[in-house]
Amino acid sequence: MQSSSRLFPVQLVSAELIGSLVEDIYLLKPNNSPDRSVELAVTRLSKSNDHGQPVILLHGSFSNRRHWLSADGKGVAAYLVEAGYDVWLPEMRGHGLSPVNNDFTKNSLDKIIEYDLPAIHKFVAEQTGKEIAWIAEELGGFLIMSALALGVIDQKTVSSCVYLEEATPLSPRLNNAKVYSKTALWRWKKPGVINGRRLKLGSENESYPVIKEFLCWQNSLKYSSPAGLSLDDAFKNITVPMMVVGSNTSTQSAIRNTQWIYNQLSSTPKILKEYDYALLSHQNVYEEGGVTLSESTSGCWGDIVYWLEKQYSCLGQAAERFICNE
Question: Which one of 10, 163, 315, 319 is CB 3.0 to 4.6 Å from 5, fit for a cystine?
């Protein structure tokens, strides 16, 4: 079977219509990771062959593409398509349509950063021929910002990036599920997998190393991965225009929150926006146990689209880019 990419084997596994939207689902096999069983599902959502600016939506922990797009074609992904964007929805190793890789229990942040995100980015760049915007939530946001900061994704190919804080950050969610309280997290070290559905954390499982490493960073402990990846002060290396979106009602002052992330950035322009995440018009809970984000959530999505449009309009105008800041 002919590959859909010149980079590595890519299979178009599905091409469907969801209402007025075209949904193409690709399965990437980058073969760049020590675990050669890794395959990554990437969904392209569009309305016609006249594609606009590409934007990649990366889900957070215990989640998948359904966080952005419901089975009946509703949610933030559909909203962005209607706004004129070419939307791409990758799913991390073993999440959603991405098969569970052989070494799932050994998955770690550095492997996703070093191998998976660059492959996804290069594929979308190849297919679109345009600079790409990224929107990513909490764990996903940490991953893409790390990939930019460490240089595994060329920042010159990125038009802008949006980091989203989750309505309920990971630490309190784990505490509520009695996973993280005191030494409870260590109970999951031997099985190597934290069951999202069983613990009502979300629709997907996560490997123990991924969650442990992310919590080490989020709770301001020194982070160093098994591969030697260090992120202390690395975000200052990000030059891509950054929008940081957080909650103005968060009480999680002990964790590295959106204000801390914003302060670390040297990006020009950069902006911090805070919203009342309690103002949710409805909760679109899907069958597997996750929630599909609505564009009406706290009013932030209109501002995000405005931000994306401003930064995209400034491409090729580096000398004037400072005027595009809020």
Answer: 10
pLDDT digits (tens, 9 = 90+) for 134-182: 999 999 999 999 999 989 999 999 999 999 998 778 887 887 777 766 5
Task: Tell me which H or E stretch contains 216.
Answer: helix 208-218
Roughly how many angstroms between the first and final C-alpha of the chain, as a whole number?
48
For residue 198, how far is the Cα from the chain centroid?
23
Determine the Cα–Cα distance for residues 99 and 255; give it in Å rounded to an integer: 32
Q: How far is residue 64's CA from residue 9's CA, in Å, rounded to a whole number?
A: 22
The angle formed by the CA atoms of residues 236, 238 and 240, to the nearest 5 degrees, is 145
Residue 139 near residue 170, CB atoms below 8 Å: yes
Contact 25, 41 (CB under 8 A): yes
For 121-180, give the DSSP string: HHHHHHHH-S-EEEEEETHHHHHHHHHHHTTSS-GGGEEEEEEE--SS-HHHHHHHTTSS
224 DSSP assignment: B
CA atoms of 9 and 4, how far apart (whole Å): 7
**pTM exceeds cut of 0.90:** yes
Does residue 116 come out as left (phi exceeding 0), alpha (psi in the -120 to 50 range) or beta?
Answer: alpha
Do residues 285 and 200 make contact, with C-beta atoms less than 8 angstroms apart? no
Q: Nearest Cα to 257, choosing from 268, 267, 244?
A: 244
Q: Which residue has the tokens 């960073």?
A: 217
What phi-psi label fits residue 36: left (phi over 0), alpha (psi between -120 and 50 degrees) or beta? alpha
